[in-house]
Design brief:
Keywords: NAD, Oxidoreductase. By secondary structure, the chain is of the alpha/beta class. It has 2 domains: about 240 residues, Aldehyde Dehydrogenase, Chain A, domain 1 (3-Layer(aba) Sandwich), CATH 3.40.605; about 180 residues, Aldehyde Dehydrogenase, Chain A, domain 2. The chain is built from 15 helices and 20 strands. It has a 7-stranded mixed β-sheet with strand order 15-16-17-14-13-18-19, with helices on both faces. Helix 3 packs antiparallel against helix 6 and helix 4 packs parallel to helix 5. The longest helix is centred in the first third of the chain and has 20 residues.
Length: about 500
Amino acid sequence: MARQIVSIVGGADVPSGVPYESVNPARPAETVATVLLGGPEVFAGACRAAAAARHDWARVPAPVRGRAIASIGRLVEANAETLARLVTEEIGKPYAESLGEVREIVDTCDFFLGEGRRLYGQTVPSEMPDKSLFTFRVPVGVAAIVTAGNFPVAVPSWYLVPALLCGNAVVWKPAEYASASAHALYRLFTAAGLPDGVLNIVFADGPATFAGLDRALGEGTVQKVGFTGSSEVGRSVGELCGRHLQSPCLELGGKNPMVVMPDADLDLAVEGALFAGFGTAGQRCTSLGTVIAHEDVHDEFLARFAAAVRAAKIGDPNGDVLYGPLLDRRFAERYEEYLGWIQPHHTVLPGPTGRMDGEGLYYHPVVVDGLRPDDRLFLEETFGPIVGVTTFRTLDEAVELANRPGYGLSSSIYTRDPKAVFRFREGVSAGMVSVNNSTSGAEAHLPFGGNGRSGNGSRQSGVWVLDQFTRWQAMNWDYSGRLQKAQMDVAEIVPDLGFRL
């Protein structure tokens, strides 16, 4: 029997809402959970509850908050297999990938638990005597976090862990189609002893969330917005925050390029393209968009890549497969639209396109050769198991092609030439560059994020994300017993600038 899930605000269930069924995409007739979706008032009310709880949480010493993060990591680790199986059941991600995703939460907790003792400020020398200057990191207040469902537990942890560690209260709105996974993660977080209201979870659809966020920003109960999702929605979120003089943390889509140089290890490049292009059924923001292969190796690379795709196993995510079903019906419908972008001048490999036989949301992997710089398939993100291929002559041309779509999340180059590596790194607009590795993959202690259509330059993970969830506060302490005016009462040493040997 499917579980029923409700929003939790201030530690209390919100028992009313519009029912929504989160289904197993491998068996769409099977309901994983029935979720009661709240309206704008539920979201705005959660922000008020967080605002009421944030001051007491901020007063908890940061090292103690770090111990709470440590407890979350241990709880997730102890429940790793159960959580991973739920992720596989709800969004169709192969179990091995789901287990890796859960491991990412543990890694994130392991990194940030120590930051509770390293939320460093600085003691700065003053230009005047008997005066000291200090800087402090202070919590922003309430963070409203909205996440997608392709990484239903790992990506939320990139927001929740540092936000809580820094002393903020949080309102989290996960994707509806990943509600059961999100609810399980919420329970693990609160089992670590978080006070009521410090972490709130709200289930709602997009329009209700946007309206609730608009209301909360107007009421002044939200000081930071984190959003992971499409570039289109991210633009709307950014505009809304801008009207309230806030800078959100936006992690958006990608059209991630992989450049294959003439000296590349082609077998390694094929392996990287297979994983980056079709892992999670191509439904990652870091999924490979276009292979940009040098004309001297294009044909050989394409032949090997098509053979690897043809041999790959697609099916039950509980088995040993490259990928399982698409996340949800809405993504299946959108993917079928992307297939309509294939033009007569394209060559489609390695076989049939469209939906595979069976009840699940399974789709054939597609490689499209002959992309041109003005093709929609070249310029737009295609969230699903489709990879484009084009050619280049010079590295400068490859960099220009890599940057042309206007996204700037992840990128990759396969080469043995260090000069090519650094020229590519210098020229590509992506926030992340991989060398002889796929466009997908992140580690908890490196900055993650993009530029252009992929985001607003904010970064997640590592110490860099601390700037999203803290504000710098400067303090000066004058113990001279008199008023010393900056830039006026400055101690000075007078040089003899006319001196000559």
